[in-house]
Amino acid sequence: MSTYSTDRRSLLRIIGSIGATCAFPFASEDLYGQTAEHQHGSSAPASPLPHFFHERDFKTIARIADLIIPATDTPGASGAGVPEYIDALVARNTDHQLVVADGLRWLDAEAQRTGQKPFLELSEDQQLAIFEPLCTAYDANRENPARNVQFFGLIKNLTADGYYTSRIGLMDELKYQGNKILSSYPECH
Amino acid sequence: MQSKLYDVVVIGSGAGGGTLSARLASLGADVLVLEGGPKIDTFTDFNTHGLPFEFPYRHVPLMRAGKPGFDGERSRGLGGKTQLWNAVSLRFSQRDFKGRDHDGAGENWPVDYADIAPYYDRIEREVGVCGNYDHLEDLPDGVFLPPAPMKCTDLAIKKGAATLGVNVIHVRKATLTRKSQTRPACHFCGNCMSGCDVAAKYNSLNVHMLPALATGKLTLQHNSIVYDVAVSDEARVKEVRYFDRETRAEGVARGRSVVVACACAQSVALLLMSKSSRFATGLGNSSGELGRNFIPHITAGFEVFLEDFIGKAPTDDQGFLDHAYIPSFMHTKKRDYARSFGVQFNYQNHRMAGWARSLPGMGKNYKEAVKARYPAYMVFTGYHEMLPNRESYIDIDANDLDTYGLPKPRRYWKLGGSDQKLHEDMVRSCRAILDASKAQIHSAAPQPVTNHEVGGCRMGDDPKTSVVDRFCRSHDVPNLYVVDASVFPSSSEKNPTLTIMALAARTADHIAERLQKREI
User: Given an 8 Å threshold on Cβ–Cβ distance, is B379 in contact with A25?
Assistant: First the structure.
């Protein structure tokens, strides 16, 4: 007899979670990674936003989020309140806070090195030139990314989560149609 | 003053406890149901229709603000997991009950399909199961309401599977497609697993227990967490000890008989906790089999995008989540493993797009890619049986206590050689069906994952190798019963709940008969 599970601890964690809700695998009801955030901080919503980021850092995060999800025929990340969502989640998660602090410090230096200006004063092309290689690296290896890649990955994940759970993202961009009262289920034509 | 002596004390109010208690009350027995969790009002307590942007952290909480419930394994609420289940209701076949006769592996049940069939009939009439008459050898038809039409995305899978000779059928669910005398028909909002706020989907509180209150024979006592089932010198249950979930005040309930229906691992845990000088390793454990033979369903899940639907306009196809099912199809094939699998798919809820973050890229192209794939996204999950083995069991950890100070159940499982072959064939078959259906695989579960919990109090005729008899009665303690999936000697690949309910109904009749004969 052999087993797929290499260590009992991870096995228990997987199976330990099923008793509570009998959740389906991949039910997509929960955002990946939100469980951790819920465990780290208090459940009470905090004071007016932003309450974790300094003003300039908040603008930087908003700018990165807009590079990831720009405005098209629908608003982009900042138009959908994503920076506020990121601020709220990072404020509650000490792991995220360390990644963000390291990332912002790295970004300051990288902007000076490549454009001799603060990040927010660089052109869009210059800003993309910093992040697109990180995006490529993140897509190639999400398991053990370098610290700056990890920073990009965190902001991308939070941007995607925040955008597609916003009213603009879910209702206007994706055009979610469910949650209605139907008298019968339509046949497929 | 001694507390009231009930005919039956039932611990747990879900599919097993709810079905059994309602039946016994209707037959005239005095029944007390002890539920660890709070009182639930199905119609008002859940955030059934919540959308993520209505909540500060975008996670739709299960319960509405200020409403307690479902905060842990020992404290769910009236109705138990039937409040949140997906309602898939499949009959086990004769082959499922007698698997060992077919492939020489695992254990047979001590009952046949013919013993359980009348109870399936009764339960299906009571709860309302929709489905199609498919005339399959391995998935018996039942008493069905009309099925809901398949989704367009289901038909893509049906077409692809057909090229491989694989059959896709309408799902069978305890969700009303026509209104009944007391419940409305499903309105297809797609939020079934968030608590159905009209009870079109079966739950044991609204469909079984609340109507049974009219008998005057049923008492529902919530917030009562049982920690000990105590026996007399004559090895009979004499009382059930509990404490209040909120105040921690101790209480005692007395019954001529006691039914443990706490959902598999929790039932096992309660019996293991109920030690005494007579039963030093747990109540009813003279066989040493209590907790053993844990055989949960094993799954392999995929997230996919159906090519034909990429870029299509989104439609309101949520329905009641999955509308189709791929029944076990390998019994007729020559194969080198025991048992089989089925596939549940298209049960995702589109009010979340949690997969978006894992799509590659950034910028306008990324945003367009997410939008284009949104109508094409589907989950596709194979479920298979596993055989019992000595390394798969449930025990309790005296050093790891929950918020109530009670030991948490621990689950151990390990796939045997045959199970692994079955798993690999299931993964291979799922990939082939997806490929034939022009589905791009976005992600695949990296390893087997458990789902429905089964086993731990095996049913059997031999007291040396099983915990309960064919009527779910303890071999050791003649007035102690267990009704949930822990008693299943084999799990089948089919969802367990309909069979839990059928067994509970059968055990209820059996207890009523014994009460009438004054055997209890």
Answer: yes
